[in-house]
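Hey, resending since the last one bounced:
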Amino acid sequence: MDKPTIRNEKDGSVFEQAEGDTILRAALRAGLGLSYECNSGGCGGCKFELMNGEIETQWPGAPGLGERDRKRGRHLACQCRALGPVTIKAATAPEYQPRILPRRQRARLVGTRDITHDIREFRFRSESDARFLPGQFAMLDLPGLAASRAYSLSNTANEGREWHFQIRRVLHGQGSHVLFEKLVEGDEIGLDGPYGLAYLRTGSPRDIVCVAGGSGLAPMISIARGAAEAGLLNGRKLHFFYGARTPRDVCGESMLDALDHRDGQIVYIPVVSLPGDEGGWSGEIGYVHDAVARLLPTELANYEFYFAGPPPMTQALQEMLMIGHRVPFDQIHFDRFF
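The structure tokens again:
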């Protein structure tokens, strides 16, 4: 069967859609910079107009598409497949062009370890190279689920073909239910990646700030590990903030301690929003974005920011940095997930 051909009227590019791919994944696999963020239907970053041809939508109610968008005939490239030759109008830009082309492969679960009471690390070994940039994510095809799930990587590219994910157990979450309750060592899944734009910029001369909340720990640990491997922590500081609900949710410090860095180059600051009444917590209390603004030693525009976590946290950080402190947009790196 011939692969559907997709033409983007916006830039004149033409690409083919392989079996199982969405329009977005097909474009990125072809090396084209189609606009996107989450690749999961939540952010709305990959909206497009269908000019002609026929498509099918995997998730008609995806939250990334509002009622106004639907009335205007817009669609999400991450949720649509071409059923034949189609012409679309979709935004593109050089910054969306993948530095490493995503690819599909099989991966086997080779180990797990608990990080907190509700975050567990899952280690998979793939058929071929584990090539990705620190801070990126992959799409996992889990048994029994119709749609892929996006999970951030916590390790860095390696010759051992290993992909590590630190995943939080979510109440009623279908993906985390399969991972925590169904998958056993030796089981095989589908893995497609890498994806994501919030990867480590090694060319920046600025000190690094990582802000993580919940399972946003994974990409921030990947960023920190990538910075250490690139030798950046011998000349620059890494300020690592972790926002947790309660003291038992705090994690990440031991992973940072294991990195190759000069003494004093890593500053770890956990922030707890609900310390409890027992009086056992002596660290920072409140919201993590407030701690970032209060505790960094110089003007916020002097830093390179990376963050990942719950949407309210990432929204508050983005507004604080861009509006409250006028940090240039190209110094702020995050992928929106909902």
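The helical segments are 23-29, 67-71, 174-182, 217-229, 253-257, 288-295, 311-324.

Sorry for the duplicate.
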